[in-house]
Amino acid sequence: MEGNAFASIDEYIAQFSQEIQEILQSVRKVIKDSAPEATEKISYQMPTFALHGNLVHFAGYKNHIGFYPAPSGIEAFKKELSVYKGAKGSVQFPLDKPMPYDLISRIVKYRAAENTEKASAKSKKKK
Fold it and tell me: Lower CB density within 10 Å: C or N end of the chain?
Protein backbone atom coordinates (compact mmCIF):
# COMPACT_ATOMS: atom_id res chain seq x y z
CA MET A 1 0.00 0.00 0.00
CA GLU A 2 1.11 3.52 -0.73
CA GLY A 3 1.83 6.04 2.01
CA ASN A 4 -1.64 7.56 2.05
CA ALA A 5 -3.65 4.42 1.33
CA PHE A 6 -6.77 4.07 3.43
CA ALA A 7 -7.86 0.75 4.86
CA SER A 8 -11.50 1.73 5.28
CA ILE A 9 -14.06 4.43 4.57
CA ASP A 10 -13.96 5.37 8.27
CA GLU A 11 -10.22 5.96 8.00
CA TYR A 12 -10.72 8.03 4.85
CA ILE A 13 -13.42 10.22 6.42
CA ALA A 14 -11.39 10.72 9.63
CA GLN A 15 -8.81 12.84 7.77
CA PHE A 16 -11.31 15.69 7.20
CA SER A 17 -12.56 18.49 9.43
CA GLN A 18 -15.58 17.71 11.61
CA GLU A 19 -17.92 19.63 9.28
CA ILE A 20 -16.82 17.71 6.17
CA GLN A 21 -16.80 14.41 8.09
CA GLU A 22 -20.48 14.92 8.91
CA ILE A 23 -21.36 15.56 5.26
CA LEU A 24 -19.32 12.55 4.10
CA GLN A 25 -21.02 10.34 6.70
CA SER A 26 -24.42 11.60 5.51
CA VAL A 27 -23.54 10.88 1.87
CA ARG A 28 -22.36 7.42 2.94
CA LYS A 29 -25.63 6.78 4.81
CA VAL A 30 -27.74 7.90 1.84
CA ILE A 31 -25.80 5.52 -0.44
CA LYS A 32 -26.13 2.66 2.11
CA ASP A 33 -29.86 3.27 2.51
CA SER A 34 -30.36 3.49 -1.27
CA ALA A 35 -28.39 0.31 -2.04
CA PRO A 36 -28.43 -1.76 1.18
CA GLU A 37 -26.97 -4.82 -0.58
CA ALA A 38 -23.89 -2.89 -1.80
CA THR A 39 -20.56 -3.42 -0.07
CA GLU A 40 -18.10 -0.74 1.04
CA LYS A 41 -14.47 -0.61 0.00
CA ILE A 42 -11.73 1.81 -0.91
CA SER A 43 -11.05 2.01 -4.64
CA TYR A 44 -8.94 4.63 -6.45
CA GLN A 45 -8.12 5.93 -2.94
CA MET A 46 -11.72 6.96 -2.30
CA PRO A 47 -14.82 5.54 -0.62
CA THR A 48 -16.57 3.17 -3.01
CA PHE A 49 -19.73 1.13 -2.91
CA ALA A 50 -19.80 -2.03 -5.01
CA LEU A 51 -22.71 -4.10 -6.27
CA HIS A 52 -21.93 -6.40 -9.20
CA GLY A 53 -18.91 -4.17 -9.79
CA ASN A 54 -18.29 -0.57 -8.74
CA LEU A 55 -21.52 1.27 -8.06
CA VAL A 56 -20.50 4.78 -6.98
CA HIS A 57 -17.47 6.53 -5.48
CA PHE A 58 -17.45 9.71 -3.42
CA ALA A 59 -14.70 11.93 -2.04
CA GLY A 60 -14.18 15.01 0.07
CA TYR A 61 -12.36 18.10 -1.15
CA LYS A 62 -11.73 21.57 0.24
CA ASN A 63 -14.74 23.17 -1.46
CA HIS A 64 -16.91 20.30 -2.66
CA ILE A 65 -17.92 16.67 -2.37
CA GLY A 66 -17.05 14.69 -5.47
CA PHE A 67 -19.59 12.07 -6.52
CA TYR A 68 -18.73 9.50 -9.18
CA PRO A 69 -21.69 7.42 -10.37
CA ALA A 70 -20.08 6.43 -13.70
CA PRO A 71 -21.00 8.14 -16.98
CA SER A 72 -24.36 6.34 -17.13
CA GLY A 73 -25.39 7.77 -13.75
CA ILE A 74 -24.46 11.28 -14.86
CA GLU A 75 -26.21 10.90 -18.22
CA ALA A 76 -29.47 9.63 -16.70
CA PHE A 77 -29.74 12.67 -14.40
CA LYS A 78 -27.96 15.24 -16.57
CA LYS A 79 -30.80 17.77 -16.42
CA GLU A 80 -30.82 17.86 -12.59
CA LEU A 81 -27.01 17.71 -12.45
CA SER A 82 -26.58 20.56 -14.95
CA VAL A 83 -26.52 23.11 -12.10
CA TYR A 84 -23.31 21.51 -10.77
CA LYS A 85 -19.77 21.36 -12.11
CA GLY A 86 -19.00 17.96 -13.47
CA ALA A 87 -17.45 15.77 -16.12
CA LYS A 88 -18.39 12.61 -17.99
CA GLY A 89 -18.49 10.40 -14.89
CA SER A 90 -18.41 12.87 -12.00
CA VAL A 91 -20.18 15.76 -10.35
CA GLN A 92 -19.09 18.30 -7.73
CA PHE A 93 -21.53 19.26 -4.97
CA PRO A 94 -20.27 22.54 -3.44
CA LEU A 95 -19.92 22.59 0.34
CA ASP A 96 -21.48 26.06 0.58
CA LYS A 97 -24.83 24.76 -0.71
CA PRO A 98 -27.15 22.09 0.73
CA MET A 99 -26.19 18.55 -0.32
CA PRO A 100 -28.77 17.12 -2.75
CA TYR A 101 -29.26 13.90 -0.75
CA ASP A 102 -32.50 13.03 -2.54
CA LEU A 103 -30.78 13.30 -5.93
CA ILE A 104 -27.81 11.23 -4.69
CA SER A 105 -30.26 8.56 -3.50
CA ARG A 106 -32.05 8.42 -6.84
CA ILE A 107 -28.75 8.17 -8.75
CA VAL A 108 -27.53 5.34 -6.48
CA LYS A 109 -30.82 3.44 -6.96
CA TYR A 110 -30.52 3.93 -10.72
CA ARG A 111 -26.94 2.62 -10.73
CA ALA A 112 -27.87 -0.35 -8.47
CA ALA A 113 -30.67 -1.34 -10.85
CA GLU A 114 -28.35 -0.90 -13.83
CA ASN A 115 -25.56 -3.07 -12.32
CA THR A 116 -28.05 -5.73 -11.15
CA GLU A 117 -29.62 -5.88 -14.61
CA LYS A 118 -26.21 -6.22 -16.28
CA ALA A 119 -25.22 -8.99 -13.83
CA SER A 120 -28.43 -10.93 -14.39
CA ALA A 121 -28.10 -10.56 -18.17
CA LYS A 122 -24.56 -11.96 -17.91
CA SER A 123 -25.67 -14.91 -15.78
CA LYS A 124 -28.47 -15.70 -18.26
CA LYS A 125 -25.92 -15.78 -21.10
CA LYS A 126 -23.79 -18.29 -19.19
CA LYS A 127 -26.67 -20.77 -18.83
Answer: C
